[in-house]
């Protein structure tokens, strides 16, 4: 038994689970050790990756702790560094053990049964005991997960190759993949996520099997995917070309990536070794195989894959060419960028003005970095004067010779030709690389400019030594270089002053651009749009520190097959959301080339901010990748067609996933209510992964959370991440800071924000004075936030682009800041700047530099984030006078625009508001053409805002002003007089200006009737009926609507939608009049018509559902469950409204307000408060804080707070609601009396008797003046005051007192009947709006006492009291028979902890008992009190 176990252990391999990297060993040793590792269950890798567990190195190198080994240990702390003897001893011992196990000694054959049994028992104990070796085994790898197999089918005879993709693969001898019962072989590993393997020749039953992977020789397998073996004899399915191409592309990408990583690692190791030692023998690493030539070609392909980019490298000595470089950077390149923008070309430059830092000097990497940048560039510019530049010399200062020598050695390892020019300057090496074609790829276009030697006469005497040759030897080298440039065939020009050189360079590069990218050969609109998205994506991917946790969250989301909602990435502005998405997409494309991936970056182009353009672009790209037709949609129809089209497109994506990534939802154009996300589907097909990013904009985040989206909130950068980001970012710019500077930046708390850090690095990367770099860093770090950092940026821009102090930067930024939604660059901002004395040549260079600070929405420039706007305000427009002057200029500019345009409506009234020009605003807003254009569903709320401003700041009677305008209205206009009059009335109606709306409605009715338009006249009458209803003229409203029903049935038929709309309004009036039968008949018929004609999800259907909810809320008989029905109808209406209008629309607020009332009746106070709070927020934002519907919601919140005994808050909100109602209806209106009644009752409960009495008396006076002293409404208020002033009634007798009375008299005692409910306990009348809330019903019949009391003995009640204690508690809390209790209930004094659902269930189960024991129930209540 023990022998068999030893044999099994030996067969498993003593090196099982170990992965070795053979480091710098001789070739024979590598072969021997590799064979031994493979024979004993281990694995060897050719690269030191994270799967490596042991690094085998020479003993002397381990003892010396070489830099190479320390680097490997630093990158992978878990790795063990062992000598060659480690492998030899383990395998030698294992061989001896296996031999002993295979050939047991003779004594083993003669063992007695007892000895054998003892040996087996000992073996069992040893096997069960945890040895040290077992305890020290490395932690097991995570189970591998297979996500995709290509192709997904194969013949059941085997013998084919497949590609397997997944996660957590561990290359090595322990890696196994099986296809059902068949184990694969011949593994070709490309990464830890992809492998190509072979299925052996076999015979497998046709059908579906599971493909699983294992990292431990098949002991444990991870999650599988399906694979289909088809019958090779019955039907031979050929692999599709698409699948083969996908596999081959994946292999090619993995091979290219591996080669690139190897070369990069080799260069990095060479550089690091050279930084620490000068021992040349250690630098002689083995040269790459001939395949390196192929990698160079691929290297060139990577640099030229983006064809529409011009990357300019500027080469010159540093000290004497500062002015020339300034001219190029600040004047030549900005003008060229404008030309490139018109040709859809990106232009950038490489300028190493402070490239020689202390850190780079110590590391001697400056020359290598320069030559790399020359190779990356595709345009070269050389500048020479009379100075040769930095070189090894025996003349003058020789302190830098050692540094340059080391720099040359380091550069020569990547560019061997450098050894031929070791005595030349850095500038000459750069120029020789171009002239002698020493770079890879084709020849680069280059221009050389030689400065006139006599220019030195214009230089200050104290600076002339910087403009002359370093010595005779360097002077001769400079002359030879200039001679070679002249003979090279490249274009060369001589100039006298730097401005002349700038003109020459601009002309030459302009001609080059015109030749390579002619004006007539422009990209199409779609190609231009794709170019801009690619540019932004590539820029975001250049500098990024991967956070694997964030990547893992996105990977898990995409792998989830049950997802139907998007994945939301949120974070503060500048937290790295866009970079995360761009870099994750790039990696996902590499790992899953079979997926369809579409990314959209909102704000990268003017069209990208429109949600319709977004949807059209997504459908176009998906259709192109799937080779299916795109939908025939327009911007007006794409939102409706997109969900169904996407569902159909999924059917074409066989074995493919679709990933849609949308960055920057908060940057969407706000017009058309895009931020409400009505256009955004609420769910997606299961294999469509949608990822979106946004800042914490409440409307967007709230909407996404309502749809149950998964959310990832990005955290700020840790200190280590900041330091790494500094190095990576500046390395991309070919620059480097000292360690002290890096640590200083990384340790500052403000740099935890990625935007702050990147803005700081961008600022110092263009800073031209290396000597003052520390001071500039200090200035940037003194900024407390990103806005303060932008202030420094503005000051620098003033210094660079406004040296004459003409205010170019101030004017450019301030005009954009003072505009409401930004300015169009060419048609608005350029004109305003020209009027201020700034021409295009002055501001164009500035705009090219600051273009990234802006976002274009439909061609209108606005700031990319709030930090920039805050900085501009702080620097330029913080003074009220300065700010007002800019608003006046903008108002004057837009006033001169003829006609009524969208831009004029957006900006002009806003500018009038900012300058307090109320008379001008009034004249503009009451213009009939302006009003007709302004009163639209998307802009009418702005119109309401401006009308309220005019009314508040002038003595203008808006109603009279519009009536006068309509009286002088001419028919020459494009507007029909009656239609325009109706729009004005509708506007005042929605603004709750009831009197004015009624006057203008009657005027419109007169015009419609005069022109014989009966249906249009009926429309006006219906709105008039609504006004009658609001102002409590319900009889007149009812008769009007009944006439309209007859009219519509006659004109359009009994099943027309207009009939349903009118019946809906009629049902609402019936609810208000407590006519339940009529309300049911009208509303049920209206619902039937709407569902049959419009569908169950139409907004008109939702209106009817809302009124049905109001009806059942009115009939709130708890035994019948009407509150449950009301809740169901209102929730259904709410869902329809939210889907149609979004979550922030006034119609949604109506439903939320009523739903909150229902929840309050059910004692669900938390839900009620959520509904009321949301409704209040929507109404305040969309309708204004003084709209009457705001007062309605406030009244409900008053009741809610009072119910929770928060009386002070309730009183404050009640006073605010009273002020709104008074402003809307007048201080003598019935609505004000109703609010006073409620507020007075609240103050009585708060022990403010005098104030409460005053409120109630004021309500009585108002109703007396309106209706008379004998009117029921007046009597209701009088009775309320009397009941609240009356002394409290005596407490009912206790059970003991009743028993004593019964024992003394010998007669049964009956409980007294409860008093009738007071008249004033009814709720206030509905405020104006689309649907007034109905009043509450009378007390439930189940708890009303009968006319004659029923006699019951105390002894008969004893058992019932014990059995119905919980029922007594329920009934006690819902009784409203006592007048004072009803008054208290109105202001919220009732049980707050009651669960309505449990209460409803209890009442349903005991309904029969309640019907039979009504007097008993009343008695229970009295006894409990």
What would you say this structure looks like, in words?
This protein is α/β, with parallel strands linked by helices and 1425 residues long. The protein is built from 61 helices and 26 strands. The strands form six sheets. It has a five-stranded mixed sheet, with no helix packed on it. Strands 15-14-16-17-18 form a five-stranded parallel sheet, with helices on both faces. Helix 12 (322-342) links the parallel strand 14 (309-315) and strand 15 (346-350). Helix 46 (1099-1114) runs antiparallel to helix 47 (1122-1141) and helix 51 (1207-1225) runs antiparallel to helix 52. Mean pLDDT is 76; it is low at 1-11, 97-139, 235-239, 278-306, 353-362 and 1314-1425.
- Indicate the structural class: alpha/beta
Helix content: 55-70%
Query: What is the 3D shape?
Result: globular
Tell me, rounded to a whole number, the average pLDDT: 76
Which value, in Å, is the CA radius of gyration?
42 Å
Topology, number of strands? 26
Strands ordered across the widest β-sheet:
6-13-12-8-9
- Count of helical stretches: 61
Distance between the termini: 86 Å
**Percent in strands:** 5-15%
Largest sheet features: 5 strands, mixed
Task: List segments where confidence is low: pLDDT < 50 over at least 5 consecutive residues.
Answer: 1-11, 97-139, 235-239, 278-306, 353-362, 1314-1425
């Amino acid at each position: 038994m023990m022998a068999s176990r030893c044999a099994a252990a030996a067969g498993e391999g003593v090196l099982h689970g170990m992965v070795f990297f053979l480091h710098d060993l001789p070739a024979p040793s590598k072969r021997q050790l590799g064979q031994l590792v493979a024979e004993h269950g281990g694995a060897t890798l050719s690269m030191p990756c994270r799967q490596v567990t042991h690094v085998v190195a020479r003993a002397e190198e381990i003892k010396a702790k070489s830099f190479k080994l320390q680097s490997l240990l630093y990158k992978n702390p878990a790795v063990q560094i062992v000598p060659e003897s480690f492998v030899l001893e383990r395998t030698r011992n294992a061989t001896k053990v296996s031999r002993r196990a295979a050939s047991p000694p003779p004594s083993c054959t003669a063992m007695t049964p007892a000895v054998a049994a003892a040996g087996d028992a000992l073996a069992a104990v040893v096997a069960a005991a945890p040895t040290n070796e077992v305890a020290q085994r490395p932690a097991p790898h995570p189970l591998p997960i297979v996500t995709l197999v290509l192709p997904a089918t194969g013949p059941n005879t085997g013998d084919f190759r497949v590609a397997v993709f997944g996660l957590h693969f561990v290359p090595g001898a322990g890696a196994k993949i099986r296809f059902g019962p068949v184990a694969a072989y011949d593994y070709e590993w490309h990464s830890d996520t992809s492998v190509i393997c072979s299925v052996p020749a076999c015979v497998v039953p046709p059908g579906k099997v599971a493909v699983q992977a294992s990292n431990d020789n098949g002991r444990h397998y991870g999650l599988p995917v399906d694979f289909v073996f088809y019958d090779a004899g019955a039907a031979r399915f050929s692999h599709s070309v698409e699948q083969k191409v996908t596999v081959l592309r994946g292999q090619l990408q993995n091979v290219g990536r591996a080669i690139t990583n190897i070369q990069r690692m080799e260069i990095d190791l060479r550089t690091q070794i050279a930084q620490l030692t000068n021992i040349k023998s250690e630098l002689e690493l083995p040269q790459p195989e001939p395949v390196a030539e192929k990698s160079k070609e691929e290297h060139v392909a990577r640099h030229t894959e983006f064809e529409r980019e011009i990357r300019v490298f500027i080469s010159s000595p540093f000290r004497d060419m500062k002015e020339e470089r300034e001219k190029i950077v600040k004047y030549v390149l900005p003008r060229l960028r404008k030309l490139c923008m018109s040709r859809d070309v990106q232009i950038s430059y490489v300028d190493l003005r402070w490239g020689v830092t202390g850190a780079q000097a110590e590391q001697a990497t400056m020359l290598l970095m320069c030559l790399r940048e020359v190779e990356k560039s595709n345009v070269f510019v050389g500048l020479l004067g009379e100075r040769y530049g930095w070189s090894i010399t025996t003349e003058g200062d020789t302190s830098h010779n050692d540094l340059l020598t080391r720099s040359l050695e380091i550069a020569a390892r990547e560019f061997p030709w450098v050894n031929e020019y070791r005595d030349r300057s850095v500038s000459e090496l750069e120029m020789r690389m171009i002239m002698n074609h020493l770079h890879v790829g084709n020849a680069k276009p280059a221009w050389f400019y030689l400065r006139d030697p006599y220019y030195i006469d214009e230089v200050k005497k104290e600076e002339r030594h910087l403009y002359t040759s370093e010595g005779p030897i360097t002077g001769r080298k400079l002359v030879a270089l200039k001679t070679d440039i002249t003979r090279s065939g490249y274009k060369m020009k001589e100039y006298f002053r730097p401005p002349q050189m700038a003109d020459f360079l601009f002309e030459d590069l302009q001609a080059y651009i015109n030749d390579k990218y002619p004006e007539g050969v422009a990209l199409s609109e779609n190609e231009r749009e794709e170019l801009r998205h690619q540019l932004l994506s590539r820029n975001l991917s250049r500098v990024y520190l991967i956070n694997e946790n964030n990547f893992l969250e996105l990977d898990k989301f995409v792998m989830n097959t049950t997802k139907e909602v998007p994945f939301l990435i949120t974070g503060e502005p500048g937290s790295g959301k866009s970079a995360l998405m761009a870099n994750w997409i790039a990696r996902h494309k590499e790992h899953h080339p079979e997926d369809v991936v579409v990314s959209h970056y909102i704000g990268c182009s003017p069209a990208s901010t429109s949600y319709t353009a977004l949807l059209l672009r997504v459908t176009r790209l998906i259709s192109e990748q799937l080779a299916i037709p795109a939908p025939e949609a327009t911007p007006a129809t794409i939102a409706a067609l997109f969900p169904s089209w996407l569902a159909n497109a999924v059917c074409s994506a066989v074995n493919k996933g679709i990933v849609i990534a949308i960055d920057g939802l908060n940057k969407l154009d706000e017009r058309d209510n895009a931020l409400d996300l009505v256009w955004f589907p609420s769910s997606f097909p299961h294999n469509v992964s949608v990822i979106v990013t946004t800042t914490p904009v409440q409307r967007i985040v709230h909407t996404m959370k309502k749809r149950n989206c998964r959310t990832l909130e990005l955290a700020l950068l840790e200190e280590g991440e900041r330091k790494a980001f500094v190095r990576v970012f500046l390395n991309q710019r070919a620059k480097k800071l000292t360690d002290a500077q890096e640590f200083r930046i990384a340790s500052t708390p403000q740099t935890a924000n990625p935007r702050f850090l990147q803005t700081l690095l961008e600022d110092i990367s263009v800073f031209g004075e290396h000597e003052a770099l520390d001071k500039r860093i200090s200035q940037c770090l003194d900024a407390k936030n990103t806005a303060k950092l932008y202030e420094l940026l503005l000051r620098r821009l003033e210094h660079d682009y406004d040296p004459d102090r003409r205010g170019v930067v101030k004017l450019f930024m301030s005009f954009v800041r003072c505009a409401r939604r930004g300015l169009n660059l060419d048609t608005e901002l350029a004109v305003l700047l020209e009027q201020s004395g700034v021409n295009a040549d002055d501001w164009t260079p500035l705009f090219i530099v600051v273009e990234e600070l802006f976002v274009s929405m439909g061609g209108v420039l606005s700031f990319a984030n709030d930090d920039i706007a805050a900085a501009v305000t702080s620097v330029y427009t913080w003074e009220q006078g300065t700010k007002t002057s800019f608003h006046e200029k903008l108002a004057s500019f837009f006033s001169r625009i003829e006609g009524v345009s969208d831009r004029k409506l957006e900006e002009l009234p806003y500018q009038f508001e900012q300058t307090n020009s109320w008379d001008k605003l009034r004249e503009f807003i009451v213009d009939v053409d302006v009003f007709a254009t302004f009163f639209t569903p998307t802009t009418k709320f702005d119109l309401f805002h401006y009308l309220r401003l005019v009314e508040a700041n002038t003595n203008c009677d808006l109603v009279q002003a519009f009536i006068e305008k309509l009286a002088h209205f001419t028919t020459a206009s494009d507007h029909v007089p009656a239609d325009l009059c109706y729009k004005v009335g509708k506007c005042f109606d929605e603004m709750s200006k009831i009197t004015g709306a009624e006057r203008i409605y009657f005027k419109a009715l007169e015009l419609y009737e005069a022109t014989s338009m009966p249906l249009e006249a009926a429309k006006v009458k219906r709105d008039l009926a609504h006004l009658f209803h609001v102002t409590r003229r319900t009889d007149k409203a009812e008769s009007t609507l009944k006439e309209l029903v007859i009219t519509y049935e006659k004109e359009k038929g009994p099943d027309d939608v207009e009939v349903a709309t009118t019946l809906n309004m009629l049902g609402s009036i019936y609810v208000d009049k407590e006519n339940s039968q009529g309300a049911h008949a009208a509303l049920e018929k209206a619902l039937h018509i709407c569902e049959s004609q419009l569908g169950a999800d139409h907004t008109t259907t939702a209106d009817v559902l809302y009124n049905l909810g109001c009806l059942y809320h009115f009939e709130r008989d708890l035994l019948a469950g009407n509150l449950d029905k009301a809740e169901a109808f209102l929730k259904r209406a709410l869902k329809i409204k939210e889907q149609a209008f979004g979550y922030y629309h006034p119609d949604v607020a109506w439903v939320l307000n009523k739903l909150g009332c229902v929840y309050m009746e059910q004692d669900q106070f938390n839900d009620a408060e959520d509904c009321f709070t949301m409704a209040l927020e929507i109404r305040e934002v969309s309708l204004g804080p003084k709209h009457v519907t705001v007062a309605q919601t406030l009244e409900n919140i008053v009741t809610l707070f009072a119910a929770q005994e928060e009386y002070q808050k309730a009183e404050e909100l009640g006073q605010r609601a009273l002020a709104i109602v008074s402003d809307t209806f007048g201080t003598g209106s019935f609505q004000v009396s109703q609010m006073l009644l409620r507020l007075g009752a609240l103050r009585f409960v708060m022990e403010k008797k005098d104030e409460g009495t005053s409120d109630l008396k004021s309500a009585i006076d108002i109703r007396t003046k309106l209706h008379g002293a004998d009117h029921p409404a007046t009597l209701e208020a009088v009775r309320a005051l009397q009941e609240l002033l009356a002394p409290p009634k005596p407490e009912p007798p206790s059970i003991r007192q009743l028993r004593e009375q019964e024992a003394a008299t010998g007669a049964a005692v009956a409980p007294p009947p409860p008093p009738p409910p007071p008249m004033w306990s009814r709720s206030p009348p509905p405020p104006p709006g689309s649907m007034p809330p109905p009043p509450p019903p009378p007390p439930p019949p189940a708890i009303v006492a009968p006319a004659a009391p029923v006699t019951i003995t105390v002894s008969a009640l004893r058992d019932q009291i014990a059995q119905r204690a919980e029922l007594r508690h329920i009934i006690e809390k819902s009784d409203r028979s006592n007048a004072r209790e009803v008054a208290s209930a109105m202001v919220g004094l009732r049980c707050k902890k009651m669960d309505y659902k449990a209460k409803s269930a209890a009442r349903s189960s005991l309904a029969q008992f309640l019907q039979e024991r009504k007097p008993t129930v009343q008695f229970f209540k009295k006894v409990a009190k």
